[in-house]
Design goal:
With 796 residues, this protein is an alpha/beta fold. It has 22 helices and 23 strands. A hairpin with a 2-residue loop joins strand 20 and strand 21. Helix 7 crosses helix 19, helix 9 packs antiparallel against helix 12 and helix 13 runs antiparallel to helix 15.
Length: 796
């Protein structure tokens, strides 16, 4: 019993201890001894007076019984929880008594007592604020495929809420707080400025010219080129001396000074074939992947290029290459004939070999499999020892000729010779069908079963079935080791992903994007000879310093997700189109890499969709560099020395309609270093609508922290509302009409249009859209054939 703030003679409840859970470094409410102090807006208790002491004592007696019962239950729960996870309840055991409590435990009348969370029916406790991660970490910790990840993270209270909530903005913009309110504390933590015009300093930043240097030149550091004499020797062999492909192979495997030799563990050489659609951004990737993952360095692996641009690029960097000349200008025939004829020529030269296409991404080495395959040839008990095929994930018995290994002997010599003969008779037939049918002929003959070539042969149906003298049975990679499918599903057994397409040899962009979203894309590194990430690393994933500059959409719903079902833009394609254009314009203005957002749509198959199947950004790809949606959740893209943090420095910003009716817009910006908030700043403006975007961008460009920030999170909230967007569209339309007229017919002054609005319109006009197929497949079912790249139509 002791006296307390409830009045004389009344038994007051003992003061609740002050927990550090409610005290953070950002709030700056720490006393001089490092203990938490109580703030008026943080105390949570009730104070009631009762002059009737008898009724009060009965009430208190019942209260004490309840406290004791809950205390026993709470203690049992705490002990049980601490055994399983001591960190879960750390904010209970580290609680401290407020500094304004005297030796008798009395608290001043003006102070309240904070409430501990002691609900017996609550099984999941919220993490203390100082241990929670910033809201954007949810996008880096959960990929677009992991729907359960988001729910579990929210259940665990692992992440802080979106920092610019409506209530916070109202506290800062509208309310007239006194020093005992939450609004007052909010205003004390924020630096708030008002403006009624855009200053000259801001304008100077805004009108600076955008970079005209192509993305490849300004955004990447490629492995060094070889000396000019080496380049000339390569070009002489492949182009200038007009040698045939077979003559080039003779030089490549010259006995006196061979350029390519068998890999010692497998006794195989390896090759791939490609045109410039893959080589332009995957040349270094394929050679690094083959060296670092597969185990075939450039001494054991070569490229068969089917166009001159690919040859020239390979020669500049010293990669072994030969040029296929027989079918120049015909991609289908070039790929089919090259694969089969080069395979036959290698067998005739006595080389065991391993073939892998450019759209096969290896995540583990198959060398152990290849060594075991080679050993079979020395064991008479094994019959699957001549040809090593891969199947399809949905049909393990259907050969996939994107990956195969070959033992050079009379069996495979006859096999490839028959394939070539059939290909000559039926040149319009898909090469995979020919190779598969001829193999089935060999297999049935081996089993003493009759077989006739059949199926889709063009022109004029199947050819006459040849006789086989050296039949055999092939060995297969299991369907979950080499995963070949339009919708590949990796498992712990997976060695490689082969992204297929409904139309063979098409959609290189779509195949790359599927591989990237799945996290199997290798991504070249600037310094392949070193495992250290230097200050000038500028590869695809591995980047450092000035090259780690990204931009993402940020909303209160979810970081890097655009929702089509929000009020103000419900199922509206126009708002989607302008929002995507704005993100690209912001990326261009701030010279950052845009991580493509996912889109939530509920029209057909409710779910999240990637934006690259709906948006054709091919015409702006030289202005802005892009990354797949799951780029930020791929740990290969995280900062290598970030201690588990994908991005250490982040600027979060948003543009809103103002709450104060006397103002028009509000801009909020927060700068963080990991979980630590470095600054909070807000602007409130009364400028003309035309310059809202200008003011927002200017507020960013003049921030010193922006230049070094790895990630910029942007929320164009007010511009994603149809009514506001339509006002801008009408201004731009009137502006275009004004300048379309003859100068002598113009009656009025041109309507005001902002600088960023004009840049936004420029980007908007360059984008294409595939709305007929945009929502055909949600994220988990997106295939290469869904890509809109290079085939989009006008906006709707």
């Amino acid at each position: 019993r002791h006296k307390g703030p409830y009045g004389g003679g009344i038994l007051s409840p003992p003061p609740l201890i002050r927990t550090c859970r409610y005290c953070t470094k950002q709030s700056k409410r720490w006393d001089t001894e490092g203990s938490c102090t109580t703030s008026p807006f943080e105390t949570m208790t009730e104070s009631k007076s009762n002059s009737n002491s008898r009724r009060g004592n009965v009430f208190v007696l019942l209260l004490l019984i309840s406290i004791i019962a809950h205390g026993v239950l709470f203690s049992a729960r705490s002990v049980q929880s601490s055994v399983g996870n001591s960190s879960t309840n750390r904010w209970y055991t580290e609680a401290k008594v407020p500094s304004n409590v005297d030796g008798n435990g009395d608290v001043g009348d003006e102070e309240y007592q904070p409430q501990l969370r002691q609900r017996a029916d609550q099984t999941e406790e919220e993490a203390p604020a100082e241990e929670q991660l910033p809201h954007w970490r949810l996008a880096t910790d959960c990929s677009s495929y992991s729907l359960d990840c988001f729910a579990q993270a929210q259940r665990d209270h692992k992440y802080l809420p979106y920092p610019f909530s409506p209530s916070l903005r109202k506290d800062i913009e509208v309310r007239s707080p006194n020093n005992n309110t939450v609004a007052f504390q909010q205003q004390m933590e924020w630096s708030v400025e008002t403006f009624d015009h855009i200053s000259e300093k801001w304008i100077n930043q805004l009108v600076r010219e955008n970079s005209h240097v192509p993305v490849e030149e300004r955004n990447y550091i490629y492995p060094p080129k070889v000396p000019q004499d080496q380049i000339d020797a390569c070009l002489d062999l492949t182009i200038r001396q007009n040698k045939t492909t077979l003559e080039q192979l003779d030089v490549l495997f010259s006995k006196d000074s061979p350029i390519v030799v068998p890999e010692p563990d497998t006794n195989m050489i390896a090759f791939t074939i490609s045109d410039y659609s893959y080589v332009r951004d995957m040349l270094h990737e394929i050679f690094q992947m083959m060296d670092e993952t597969v185990g075939f360095s450039s001494k054991h692996f070569f490229l068969v290029a089917i166009d001159q641009k690919s040859v020239e690029l390979a020669c500049q960097h010293g990669y072994p290459v030969v040029m296929w000349k027989a079918d120049e200008g015909n991609l289908k025939d070039a790929v089919a004939n090259t694969k089969i004829i080069v395979s036959y020529e290698l067998v005739m030269r006595g080389f065991d070999f391993f073939f892998t296409e450019m759209d096969v991404w290896w995540i583990r080495s198959p060398k152990e499999n290849l060594v075991e395959f080679q050993k079979r040839h020395d064991d008479e008990e094994h019959d699957e020892k001549h040809l090593y095929l891969s199947g399809h994930q949905n049909n393990p018995h259907a050969p996939n000729i994107g990956v195969y290994a070959v033992k050079a002997d009379k069996y495979t010599e006859e096999y490839f010779k028959i394939v070539i003969d059939v290909l000559k008779q039926k040149p319009e037939t898909h090469d995979q069908w020919i190779m598969a049918e001829v193999y089935r002929l060999f297999q049935h003959t081996y089993d003493n079963q009759e077989y006739k070539l059949g199926g889709t042969f063009k022109p004029d149906g199947p050819p006459e079935t040849p006789s086989v003298q050296n039949p055999f049975k092939a060995k297969y990679f299991p369907p979950h080791e080499v995963v070949a499918d339009e919708w590949p599903m990796p498992t712990h057994a997976t060695l490689a992903i082969h992204t297929l397409n409904s139309t063979p040899l098409q959609m290189p962009h779509g195949k790359k994007m599927v591989a990237k979203e799945l996290g199997v894309y290798h991504g070249f590194r600037s310094n392949p000879s070193s495992q250290e990430v230097g200050p000038n690393a500028a590869g695809y994933y591995e980047r450092s310093g000035q090259y780690r500059k990204y931009i993402m959409l940020d909303t209160s719903t979810r970081t890097n997700m655009y929702s089509n079902v929000q009020p103000g833009r419900y199922h509206d394609k126009m708002t989607t189109q302008w929002t995507m254009a704005l993100l690209i314009a912001l990326a261009r203005k701030t010279d950052r890499i845009l991580v493509l957002p996912q889109v939530f749509q509920a029209d057909m198959d409710a779910g999240t969709y990637f934006s690259w199947p709906m948006m054709d950004y091919s015409k702006v790809s030289e202005m802005v560099d892009f990354r797949e949606t799951n780029f930020v959740s791929n740990r290969r893209a995280w900062k290598h020395d970030g201690g588990g943090w994908p991005f250490e420095s982040v600027v979060t910003t948003a543009l809103f309609d103002a709450n104060d009716p006397e103002e028009k817009i509000s801009i909020y910006t927060q700068v963080t270093q990991r979980s630590e908030i470095l600054s909070k700043k807000a602007w409130r403006g009364t400028i003309h609508d035309s310059f809202f975007l200008d003011a927002w961008v200017c507020s960013l460009l003049t921030m010193p922290e922006l230049e070094s920030a790895e990630l910029l999170l942007v929320n164009p909230d007010r511009n994603m509302i149809w009514g506001n967007l339509w006002s801008m569209i009408r201004r731009l339309s009137r502006h275009n009409e004004y300048f379309a007229e003859d100068e002598d017919k113009r009656k009025d002054t041109p309507p005001p249009v902002g600088w960023m609005e004009l840049e936004l319109k420029e980007i908007y006009d360059m984008l294409g859209w595939c709305w007929n197929t945009a929502y055909r497949h949600s994220a988990s079912k997106t295939a290469a054939s869904d890509s809109c790249y290079g085939k989009g139509g006008p906006p709707e």
